[in-house]
Amino acid sequence: MSTTTTITQVNPRRRRAGGHAQVDRLLPRPLLIAANVLLCLLVAGPVSYMLFASVNSDVAVASGAYWPTALRLDNYLTVWRSVDLAGGLVNSLLICGAVAIVCAAVAVSMAWVLVRFTFVGRITILRGLLGLQSVPGTLMLLPVFVMFSTLSAALRIPTIGTHWSVFVTYLTFALPFSTWVMVTYIRGLPRELEEAARMDGASNLRVLTRIVLPLSWPGIVVAAIFAFLQGWNDVLFASVMTNTESRTAAVALQIFGATQETGAVPLYGQMMSASLICAIPVVVLYLVFQRYLVGGLTSGGVK
Q1: Closest CA relative to residue 151, chosen from 143, 163, 159
Q2: Residue range 189-203: average pLDDT?
């Protein structure tokens, strides 16, 4: 007597289609399409207005015109003479790029130690990383300024208005969130790879650089981009901690916009063109690291 065993293979495409069907059941397809179109319009509306206003005349923009009545492409050329946009972009790229690199390197090291090792105060540090996110940055402006001023008087070195003071300030506020992102990501990495490397005689530093870092690129990219954007979009701390030589692009735009309030017709075209120029590095950053962002933001969601 023989027994016949039938093995049924699961088609991955069928399972994937079933997964989409479950999503469609939660939200009907027409409603899903309408929601996506609405979100795209909400995003494209302000961006298209900035684009059209940057090539329009100042009088037309002041009157509320949406479509350009006359193409003024010279706004993208004259804005470099109206405001120190080049210096602001260089300072922002220098400071924010350094903050992103250092923050990502420190965050992945700290997160690996917090996840893989057990020591006194480990839970307190993890809770502190979450607690620091609830402190508004506005409340820290005066203490940070007083701290750097006291440090300058004690060490007899300039602090306010230097690049490194802004770098330290941004790194302080970006490091807790970046570290928590890496903690969530490293928790999902298999321990067996690290244990196999240690059995081959690898040290902790070698495990970190050869095993953890190559597997953590999506999380590292998310942590670095968050740190970069926090410094790039900041106006409050940069307006206090910088001077004319270390001024960032966000502060340069703020000062340029404030100077136009006293004029008869503000230079709307140049202000919009300057805003679009400052947005280009961020857009390029997202386009280059898009595939890493998707994996880093969804890490830890499925076990």
Answers
A1: 159
A2: 88
